[in-house]
Amino acid sequence: MLETLRLHYAPDNASLIVRLALEELGVTYETVLVDRAAQAQRSDAFRAINPAAKIPALETPDGALFETAAILLYLADRFGRLAPDTDDPARGPFLSWLFYISNTVHANLRLTFYPQIYAGNNDASISALRAGARSNLLESLRLLDILANEGHAWFNGTTPSLLDLYLAAILRWMAIYPAGDTSWFSLASYPGLLDMASSLENRDSVVALIRAEGMAPCPFTKPAFPNPPEGVAL
Question: Is this structure's pTM higher than 0.90?
Answer without folding.
Answer: yes
